[in-house]
Design a protein that fits this description.
By secondary structure, this protein is an alpha/beta fold. The chain is 49% helix and 12% strand. Strand 4, helix 6 and strand 5 form a beta-alpha-beta unit. Helix 1 crosses helix 7 and helix 3 packs antiparallel against helix 4.
């Protein structure tokens, strides 16, 4: 299975990846594009620009080109689409030009796990974090993935609860798929 973990920043994606990595030791974990690019010397603006999110989107699409099985992806193209559509300069983003590439990349996933912000937020934020952007991206991701207005057609599992409960929901879903 090729599984992507999606959600806004500070929602618990990386923690879920860690839990799943322990429970699915044969799976290869692919770090999120931000960290990959940063390790390669890419310098992000603060706050990130449209170009920065486009760079992460392109890397996320490229990451999905790896045909290996049993992979866990920390983020997927829809994450960056959510950030781009919520960005204050979203008009500079050419959605129509990117949609075919995003759809093609998502077809290479077997499951997309959505980690949303819960009503009682489990994550505490520092004063320097942009809570408005976090909430806007969470809302946009839920719209993109649960309503599927761009016909991505990827199977989405929305999880909630503690990190262990979220991992258990994913495992139960995978077991159901194996039947």
């Amino acid at each position: 299975m090729r599984i992507a973990i999606s959600g806004t920043h500070r929602a618990g994606k990386s923690t879920l990846i860690e839990e799943l990595s322990e429970l699915l030791p044969s799976y290869v974990t692919v770090d999120e594009p931000y960290h990959q690019l940063e390790e390669e010397g890419y310098e992000f603006a603060s706050p990130p620009s449209v170009e920065d999110f486009e760079e992460q989107l392109a890397r996320s699409i490229a990451d999905l080109d790896d045909d290996s099985r049993d992979m866990l992806f920390d983020r997927c193209p829809v994450d960056f689409l959510g950030y781009l559509l919520a960005h204050e300069d979203h008009d500079a983003f050419d959605l129509e030009a990117w949609l075919p590439r995003i759809r093609g990349a998502l077809r290479k996933l077997d499951l997309l796990v959505l980690v949303g912000i819960e009503r009682r937020d489990r994550i505490s934020l520092s004063a320097s974090e942009n809570e408005a952007l976090r909430l806007a991206v969470d809302e946009k991701l839920k719209e993109l993935l649960l309503d599927d207005p761009y016909d991505f057609g990827v199977e989405v599992l929305e999880v909630e609860g503690s990190p262990r409960a979220r991992a258990k929901q994913v495992l139960e879903h995978l077991r159901g798929e194996a039947r």
